[in-house]
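[Meeting: bench + compute handoff]

Bench side (C.D.) handed over the final construct sequence. Compute side (W.E.) agreed to return the predicted structure before the next meeting so the bench team could plan truncations. Sequence as handed over:
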Amino acid sequence: MSARRRDGAPLRVGINARLLASPDRRGFNRYTAELVRALAAAGHVEPVLFSDLPIHPVHGLERIRCVAERVRPQARWQHLWLPAALRHERIDVFHAPAHWGVPWRSPCPVVATIHDLADRERPDLRSRAGLKVRGRHGFEQWLVVRTARRIIAVSEWTARSVARHLRVDSARIAVTVEGAAPEFDEPVDGAVVAETRSELGLREPYFLYVGGFDARKNLGAIVRAVATLPAEQRVAVALVGDGGDAAHALRREAVAAGVDPWIVLVGGVDDRRLAALYAGALAVVMPSWLEGFGLPVVEAMHVGTPAIVSSGGSLPEIVGDAGLVFAPADPAALAAALRRVATDATLRSDLASRAHARAPLYTWARAAEQTAAVYLAAAG
């Protein structure tokens, strides 16, 4: 879907890229950078990045035009500087890819991506943010609903959540996929898997978790599930991510449950090592209370690794028949799934084949094509 202007040139799409000043490559940043790269590579549109700080080189977007100017406070950048810059750059459509960042008055049609509405779906799991932060978050949601001509949801579950909680007409909501970075499509040599395990002090067999450590991720369920298994049936679970204080709390919980040797905190890793960890794992495990998408499941699919996921949010939708599903409030069900995958080689092989077959549904090239169609619809 090539989005063109009346003069035949590609649509110029402005992207709010403020978050990409950080070197963090997960979550919103991963979505934004990979989507921009795919859009530019396919020639669907001409993306132009807008930020108040330079884009970090780790995202690999040096060839994409970036208009950046440090303006403080942030609200002045968003509501005064940004509209003027969009007009000056002759932007046809503006895209806010991370829930927020829409100007009060935009000179062009607006598209916004909503990844999930966790604060609406499970207010009991909110982080302990101050009243000012929560108020601003609510204002940004309201502004997206008021301003955006089209809202992108990254799963059917998120689309239903947006329609229900924000009272958005389903005609304004478009569902697009996410994908896996190119590193996860490259064959992983067994020697690299062994080397990565050795570097990280990880023995096989093991299961793998990738992501954050906040309350929504329900990581205590992993500790409790491992604790319900007899010692001879336990398999290590490696947790990848920078968890900070939450990771230390999880470690204390594992020690108290007597399963500390089976809960391995790996920390953050680059994509090369992450691909090797996926390749060596029995399965990726996601016990979240809810997820708007679940990118680690898709990354694992591209490597050919099955998944064990909770029924929270979009995860069953994403994993399809390439994994096992359990209720997030039932650690015993998770323990049973871990035991099945660890002991049944035929099941693992079948799920791995299904993961490979399902992976082409989730690519950044497909995401770019779907997103370009949303831009075209927004541009009218």
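W.E. noted at the follow-up: The first helix runs from residue 27 to 42. C.D. will use this when planning the next construct.
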